């Protein structure tokens, strides 16, 4: 098994740097985010990662997501879940077929009155345990999220949308950012 330590430390260091310097607005959800995620009490990961200075190959999704400032709130939630951290680090049998992440932006969280208590479960609806390309999305593919929600993709006027179960469709932004452990796309709404 290849060590993912560099990836995990890059995510942690970058996330803390972003949170410390992001200048979170005076928005009540942004303020609540700081309290919720800085005071969470989750057990230590079952298998701690060790720092590997000899990491080789393409960067993992965790490396890239750690630098994605538009998704820093979601990264806080992802870091609370061992399963999701392993997924973005390329170290999860549940995602052996690939990973496509519909990463909620900070704006998605700021639209809420409060952060959901089950934020890890909500974020699992944004993780797809297989590769889904932008082309497949445009063609209208239907897939299952890690949490079990059915995700239906559609195209309208050159824009791609995803509908989680019976929720309103949400626009999928961009063509996706690829890494060794998967691809992520940004979305401006949470599947709550």
What's the quick description here?
The protein is an alpha+beta fold.
Overview of the structural elements:
This protein has 192 residues and is α+β, with helices and mostly antiparallel strands. The protein is built from 8 helices and 7 strands, in the order αααααβααβαβββββ. Strands 2-1-7-6-5-4-3 form a 7-stranded mixed sheet. The radius of gyration is 16 Å and the shape is globular. It starts with a helix and ends in a 5-residue tail after the last strand.
SSE diagram, text form:
Layout: H1 5-21, H2 28-38, H3 61-65, H4 72-78, H5 82-88, E1 100-104, H6 106-110, H7 119-124, E2 127-128, H8 134-138, E3 142-144, E4 150-156, E5 159-164, E6 170-179, E7 182-187
Parallel strand pairs: 1-7
Antiparallel strand pairs: 1-2, 3-4, 4-5, 5-6, 6-7
